[in-house]
User: What shape does this take?
Amino acid sequence: MKKYKDELIKSMKYLSKDERTIFLGQSVKFSGNAIFSTLKDISDKKKIELPVFEDVQMGLSTGLALQGFIPITCYPRFDFLILAMNQLVNHLDKIRYMSFNEFKPRVIIRTSIGSKKPLNGGVQHTQNYTKIFKDILREVEVVNLVNPNTIFKEYKKALKRKDSKSTLLIENGDFYN
Amino acid sequence: MLKINKNILIKFENEIKELYENGKIRAPIHLSGNNEDQLIKVFKKIKSQDWVISTWRSHYHALLHGIPYSWLKKKILLGRSMGINSKKYKFYSSSIVGGGLSIGVGIGLALKKKKIKNKVWIFIGDMTFETGQFDECYKFAKNFNLPVKFIVEDNGLSTNTPTKSTWKKLRKIPKDIIYYKYKRKFPHHGTGNWILF
Assistant: This one.
């Protein structure tokens, strides 16, 4: 069995080699969460450290994608991604319909279900909202990364998919270690 | 290409009004009016390759940015008055309050990173101007010197609620944004006349 975190590091390296990609979010350049540890081998030139403004972050990501970038927009915990629901559900997820399929922004959204071991982050840091997001999103594909053997394949698909749709990839904090 | 002037703008909205009142449009419409002079002045600065981010009241913005009269009319007849969007004309509009702000700033960030000289012009209303979303976007765009310009169209109302009554006091207007006041000619949506579908 491949190691979960190693597969994430490999996937991020792979994504970073595409000149269109850019990594953004909180703690992409500075330590502070588990996702950071998977980006440590990537040049800071490919990263934008953002303030904590989750909904604006999702809008920025959509805007970057409309102008040719492929943003990998990182939300360290699923609980925080909820704060970006307006831009995710009302905009990124609806923009194809709204534009008669003219706008096709490809955004790769990373989030993680907070770990409960060895420390339990509590109810505001460890929730798994996968089902709710699958229900509410009609264009953005939702993928829960449970099996490490599928991680690289799923990130590669998110980068290369011919329909250029956006993908939400949900990682599991407890599998990192 | 049709040269858009004040008379054409007014004529367009009157045509849409008539179509709506005759039951030809089965979706809300948001008509513009009384701000033709201000917008014509603003759009003199906007280049065809610039991005325009608009709101649910976008007909004038669309026409002034070069979207063809017939194309726009067709989309409105399809029920898309609230969300006119075109990749070709670099035009995005959202019917969510403040919805276009961060997308516009993201486009501005991309333009700067790619060293493309065009700008993003983001139109918002007076209620959006008072929100936290605007604060965040304005601060980010200004501090990183992004090629983004904000235009506040102040008709004093959010739907039918006086904006000032909800905040008690309104914010100061920064010098680096374009701001104008006008009195709404049409209701928030529709034409003011009862329509039987």
Observations:
- The helical segments of chain A are 4-16, 54-66, 78-81, 85-92, 95-98, 130-136, 148-160.
- The CA atoms of residues 44 and 116 of chain A lie 30 Å apart.
